Amino acid sequence: MKILAFSDLHLARARARDIVAASAEADLVIGAGDFCTMRKGLAEAMEMLEGIDKPLVLVPGNAESLAELTEAAPDHATVLHGSGAEVSGLRLFGLGYGVPTTPFGPQSCDLTEAEAEDLLAPCAVADILILHSPPKGLADENSAGLSLGSTAIREAIVRIQPKLALCGHIHDSWGKRGTIGRTEVVNLGPTVTWFEVTP
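Structure for Metallophosphoesterase family protein, as requested:
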């Protein structure tokens, strides 16, 4: 299956145009959160992506809540947050929000490590984990070199060992990738990124 994935669109119209155009070649499109900025402009962000007519799976970032994304997402989209879905035989599980909590205040949708662990616990098996936040120690460094990722997410990747763990959130690590056990971890960013995954 040919998968197009991105994160952290943040209302970037040119990036959205690229994603929509590329989606014509995709079997599945994945958006790993932060479609708008600071809880503003989500409807506009979804309008920018409305040309995507392939299966679309989204998780909320820290810039939008689960309720906000569920309401704004197109009818054919599947929104995941502490939940899973199967698309064409691929088992997907999603967890959005900022993990651990960010310094951005009440406009940021965040989880503690304990809350993230609880939401990830029901996932026993998955081909792809769709995350907003990266795992601790991989694709999670800011410009000062600080590791800002989640221990709960890293532990879930170790436990589940999906084929892919897709994330975003830490802008300075966009495009960074590595492995945890058998799992390829990729911090996506708002560019078109392709994956081939078989169920």
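The mean pLDDT is 97.
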